[in-house]
Fold this sequence. Notes:
Blueprint: H1 5-49, E1 58-62, H2 70-77, H3 90-98, E2 103-111, E3 115-122, E4 125-129, E5 133-136, E6 141-142, E7 155-157, H4 163-178, E8 184-189, E9 195-199, E10 204-208, H5 212-226, E11 233-237, E12 245-248, H6 249-255
Amino acid sequence: MPVSWADVGQRWKLKLTQVDWYLFFGLMFLLFVLLGLSMAALKLNLVVNDADALPIESVVIKGTREKTTDEEIQAALRDLMRRSFFSADVNQVQAALEALPWVYQASVRREWPAKLKVYLVEQQAVAHWNGDAWLNIHGEVFDAPAEDSVGPLPFLAGPEGQSQIVLTTFRQLGELLDINGLNLNSLSLSPRHAWHASLDNGIMLELGREDKMARVQRFINVYPTLVKQPKPVATVDLRYDTGLAVGWENAQKESH
């Protein structure tokens, strides 16, 4: 039986109608899924950033502390603790703690469900630097208030950026003097790179720019002779290729 063009058109119209409904329902389903995901993401974001919903309940501090108090740590973290557990930036917490004067390094990590764990390493001062600053064991300069728990330390001085060189030189000269029964009390490097040292017995050493170790050894060699003199030694100028010049304490007082 022959099929008319009208029948063909009717069939295609029916198929297109079915396809349109399938497409419509498919798009509606996809829209509802995306809407649901968006709402879930928004709610999750609100919870994550809501300090009341998931607050930081405690901060555990580990590490040996002698100079950094609990009050200083609480003050440093006060604003950061108002955030939620997830929104708290551990890098900001670390930076806030390392900004404390006697803190050398801080490491911070989250611990579920609502705790921050902090490990602190304090500065280890080995010398005074340029009067009111400090040097740590790495020769790095840091500023911190005076601390009673820090024992007597040597006094070092020098131009900016020379702290490590000065500390290294102090250790080298100090070791040489120590094995010979003498103690180095202070060392300074002038802007013209000349070295000046003083011993704990009050003797000042002028070492100049070069051959510091050799010049100190020259002083050590003549020291037994110097202390036998009737007048106390005030200064020893070692800035000579051979020999030295001695300044006597009484002579300096008389000149004043």
